[in-house]
């Protein structure tokens, strides 16, 4: 009970009659744009993301801890 070429042609003819050639071609163009943007999105995910270098902000607790550690190792 598969679809033959005749069935497929009848379905295409009904779609064209209901929506008109302009609507079908516009719809197919939109589908093609969607597929292209989807593929582009997948390709963009493969590229490495450039991340900024971490900065040390003066007066932060990490810097104070590092200075305290340096003082204890120098004295001890």
Percent of residues in helices: over 70%
User: Mean pLDDT, rounded to whole units?
Assistant: 77
Instruction: Specify the overall morphology.
Output: rod-shaped
Provide the β-strand percentage band. under 5%
Largest β sheet strand count, sense and barrel closure: none
Oligomeric form: single chain
Terminal-residue CA separation: 88 Å
Which ranges are low-confidence, i.e. pLDDT below 50, for 5 or more consecutive residues? Answer: none
The ordered H/E elements are HH
Structure notes:
By secondary structure, the chain is mostly helical. The protein is built from two helices and no strands.
What is the secondary structure topology, with strand pairs?
Layout: H1 5-46, H2 61-75
Relevant terms:
76 residues, 2 helices, rod-shaped, 75% helix, mainly alpha
Short description:
This protein has 76 residues and is an all-alpha fold.
């Amino acid at each position: 009970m598969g679809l033959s070429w005749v069935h497929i042609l009848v379905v295409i003819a009904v779609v064209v009659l209901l929506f008109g050639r302009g609507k079908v071609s516009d719809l197919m163009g939109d589908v093609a744009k969607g597929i292209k943007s989807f593929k582009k999105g997948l390709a963009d995910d493969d590229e490495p993301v450039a991340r900024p270098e971490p900065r040390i902000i003066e007066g932060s607790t990490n810097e104070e801890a590092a200075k305290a550690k340096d003082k204890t190792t120098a004295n001890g």
